[in-house]
Design brief:
It is a single chain. The chain is an alpha/beta fold. It has a domain of about 180 residues: Ribonuclease Z/Hydroxyacylglutathione hydrolase-like (Metallo-beta-lactamase, Chain A, 4-Layer Sandwich), CATH 3.60.15. The chain has nine helices and 14 strands. The longest helix has 15 residues. It is globular. Bound molecules: zinc ion and fe (iii) ion. Fe (iii) ion (FE) binds next to helix 2. The site of zinc ion has 5 residues, from loops.
């Protein structure tokens, strides 16, 4: 049976999302920005929390873990490379390892850069990916603990997922990301189309995710650093893609 998801807002601009296996009733919260909205989402769906899958150690992704675990006795799975910075961890995982949410089989990708041990969870059978603060729609996370080359390699891994993969990220930043992206690629038609779609969603107070990897590849400048036209337009023709990525990231930091 296909997985089900339930998306909701947390804190000021974080997303919470539940992943549910209808076959076994198992349900994972991807990250836990705060307990209360996760509890409300569980009540609304009638799902039982069995797992928390943690993408990285930042407080806006982990602050709710303790309270949720105390209440639901759920299993907490976190990135091995930063597990010592996250409280209440039961299992640690890294690239290539498997996570199970009931009968749903997930695969772990190391996607460092935003934090040094950041991971993403991919559920290939359902074409779902949970990417934390690595990839945002029309943007990407700040490179805080890693370096641009590391972050670019992480984004390449996510870009390599099948085009019809729907990805869930940690924050609703899409509108601001689009304003920046237009300054980088003013003539990108896919970006213009996405901007229109996002304006409609936001006007209706709807979330702008999930987005698909295929659509994102065409419109997100951070996934397009190896596009030679884009490199040229930034004065970086012939430079390695990660340097182009670093320049785009730097411009976004200053935007
Ligand atoms: Zn973060
Ligand atoms: Fe975050």
């Amino acid at each position: 049976m296909p997985a089900q998801t339930y998306l909701f807002g947390c804190l000021s601009d974080n997303f919470g999302v539940l992943l549910h296996d209808p076959e076994t009733g198992a349900t994972a919260s991807i990250d836990a920005p705060e307990a209360e909205p996760v509890e409300a989402a569980l009540k609304k769906t009638g799902w039982r929390l069995t797992d928390i899958l943690v993408t990285h150690h930042h407080g806006d992704h982990t602050a709710g873990i303790g309270e949720l675990k105390a209440h639901h006795h759920c299993r907490v799975t976190a990135p091995r490379r930063e597990a010592q910075r996250i409280a209440h961890v039961d299992e640690t995982v890294a690239e290539g390892e498997t996570v199970k949410v009931g009968s749903l089989q997930g695969r772990v990708l190391d996607t460092p850069g935003h934090t040094a041990g950041h991971i993403s969870f991919v559920f290939p059978a359902d074409r779902l990916a949970f990417v934390g603060d690595t990839l945002f729609s029309i943007g990407c996370g700040r490179v805080i603990e890693g370096d641009p080359q590391m972050m670019w390699n992480s984004l390449l891994k996510l870009r390599g997922l099948p085009d019809d993969t729907r990805f869930y990220c940690g924050h609703e930043y899409t509108e601001a990301n689009i304003r920046f992206a237009k300054s980088i690629e003013p003539n990108n038609k896919a970006l213009a189309a996405r901007a229109e779609e996002v304006a409609k969603l936001r006007a209706a107070s709807k979330p702008t995710i999930p987005a698909t990897i295929g659509a994102e590849k065409a419109a997100n400048p951070f996934l397009r650093a190896d596009n030679s036209e884009l490199a040229k337009s930034l004065g970086l023709g012939g430079q390695p893609a990660w340097k182009v990525f670093a320049e785009i990231r730097e411009r976004k930091n200053r935007f």
